Amino acid sequence: MNNENFIRRYVIIGERRLSNYWWATIILIGAIGFLLTGISSYVGTTNNVFLSESFISNTNISFFPQGLLMCFYGSLGLLLSFYWWFLIFWNVGGGFNEFNKKEGIIRIFRWGYPGKNRKIDLSYTLKDVESIRVELKEGFDSQRTIFMTLKGKREIPLTGIGQPLTIQEIEKQASELANFLQVSLEGL
User: Fold this and answer.
1) Any idea where the domains of the chain sit in the sequence?
2) Most exposed of 10, 55, 68, 103 (fewest Cβ within 10 Å)?
3) pTM attached to this predicted model
4) CATH class of 7-15+93-186
C-alpha cells in the first residue's frame, strides 16, 4: 500500500492569497500618490512630481492643512502597505494539517510572526480525536469552519481564517477527514 492511504495533508494558504497581493499593491500606490501630492504642495510645484498635469493637478492645494494631511495619510498608507507586504513575505497563518495513520499522529503546523515562537507546531495522537465538527455561520461575514474535537472537549480549528470555502467544499473535506480518521461527523 502507498503512503496516500496512510497520510493526508491539507495545505493552509495563510497571507499569500491573491486578494492580499491586490490590496497591498493598491494601498501602496494610493499612499505614494497621497505622499507625493502632499510633498509637492509643500515644495510649491504646480503638479505632482511623477504625474502629468492632465491626470491630476494640485494647484489649489495649500500645504496647511490639506497638504499636511495628505502627507499624514500617505505615511500611514505606506506603513500599512509595508506591514501587509511583510505579512505576505512571512506567510503568517500559512502551514498545513497532516493526519498520519502510519505513525498515529496528527500534526498542525502554522507560521506566525517573527520571533522565538514563529513556528507553531502542534502534535496529537489519533486516539485523542473524538469527532470532526463543522460550524456554519451565515450572514454578512459568513464563516465556515471545520473543528477537530479532542478528548476533554478541546476544539482545534482546521481551516484557515479568511479562507472562504463553499458549503460543498466544507462538507466534502469534513466527511473525507471523518472517514479517514474513522470518527463521527457533527454539525451537518
Assistant:
1) 7-15+93-186, 18-90
2) 55
3) 0.79
4) mainly beta
